[in-house]
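Q: I have two molecules that I believe assemble together. Could you output structure tokens for the complex as a whole instead of separate predictions?
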Amino acid sequence: MASGRHWLSINRWGAAPALLFTAACFIAPLVAMALVSLSERSGGHTVLTWTLDNYRGFISRSDGAFVDALVNSIQVTLTVTVLSVLAAYPLAYILAYRVPKRWQRVALVAIVLPFWTSYVIRSYSWLLVLSENGVISQTLLGLGLIDGPIGLGNNRGATVLGFVHFFVMLLTLTIYANLVQIKDSYRKAAADLGANGLQTFIHVTLPLSLPGVAVGAFLTFVLAVGDYITPQILGGGNELLLPQAIMLQINRAADFPMASALSMVLMVVVTLAYFLFARFLRMERV
Amino acid sequence: MKPRDIPALLYVALAVIFIFLPVVVLVQFSFQDGLAPVPPFKGFSLRWYDKMFADRKLMEALGNSVLVGGLSSLIATALGFLAAFKLARRPGRGAPQMQFLLMAPITVSYIIIALGLLIVFNGLGFGKSLLAVGVGHVVINLPLCFAVIYSQMGEHQANVERAALDLGASEFKALIYVTVPMLWPALLAAFFIAFTLSWDEFVIAQLLSKFDVTLPVVIFSLLRTGLNPVTNAVGTFVFAVSIGLVVLVELLLARRPRDG
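A: Yes, here they are, computed for all two components at once.
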């Protein structure tokens, strides 16, 4: 029964390789990064001195660049999250309630097709649209609505636009998934009790769909706050977001302790966001 | 069409324009018969694709991307499958904690995963390489592979496994001849989802590679030349591959009814 033991061992130890891998290549690097954030550089080496200098440097740097990066990141990410929810909700709603059932899945997949272009390509595509000789500027010129070419890229608005484009698709998916799980009978019951369409939406559909909104909004926040590509390509050089500051510390300054400290700050932001959304979710379920 | 449908239709039309505008522009001007991928469209030409396929650096990066994506997705799928099998069939006491640990990497930004691995690899004297990029891609893909496969493991398969055992199949054979064939759509879906993400991933690939790089890293360096029809051609090509894979996943997962 040698093979019998195989079976038993897969049954019992099947999760071991994945867990070991996660411990070695995910947990250990995070711990190493936390330790490096408490280290200082001396002569090309990183020495663990349990110093908080990197965190002090984050706060007290004379030009305030790091704190600015954090503030910029949070501002951009919150703007993106709110705009994406507002734009995606009606789309998901129409898909779930106005499109015939048998076409919904196809419509959904078709609408979010560009979701699968890579970050780099997607941001580049927006450059094509927004740049001075790009599609929008040229179209407006052709229509005689503007006198000279206008460049719409290289600013915070372009970063936000690039982000919203991606997250509208993500949120449409999560909100749609939530809406189709709400039983028709709830809405019918509301109608039977005399509620009109708007009342049914405000008192029944909207509250029941909030978990889907919260999950999507959390994903949006986490993915947007940690993204380097979109602000790097679309944002121009006027301001930095936190991931850009981290990349600069790694690539240009080769300052791993500082980069690690900034990454820890980024992780704290994400963790705080998680607890906020989790609390929000639990409250809504009561 | 009822009058009350008109605002909804308008909204969908606007949303579709917003979502597809950049992609349509990207694809259209990859066929531009001119030097700039911007209006006016001067006619149809495949010369930028010729140029792309003749570019040795791009083609090397393409090969690297396929290699890293293929191997890292294979490993992530295998690890995810074994873990899903254990946790679905014999959860045991620590199962929620194990699931939490396996899913944890999903909440951490790629840039942080990349920096952590870079620190560890530097410390071990391992350095930057395609192998390092592959490890990073297994980290980000393992939670997804696990989740996809776990969600498709049901009682139905457990019953067939038991039947195979009752009929005298050795237990290892039951896994190979019963469980894997029944799960192959989920396994392939997990593999292709992982491949799609690895294929597109930039930050980990950029920070953990040195001389041999993957396609997104080369594309990013192409952006320094500004708007360039070759970039459009590469982008269209990358997008087409992703779409092909996504459609494949859709078909694979749609084979069985999904209710949970």
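A: One point stands out. Strands of chain A lie at 39-42, 45-48.
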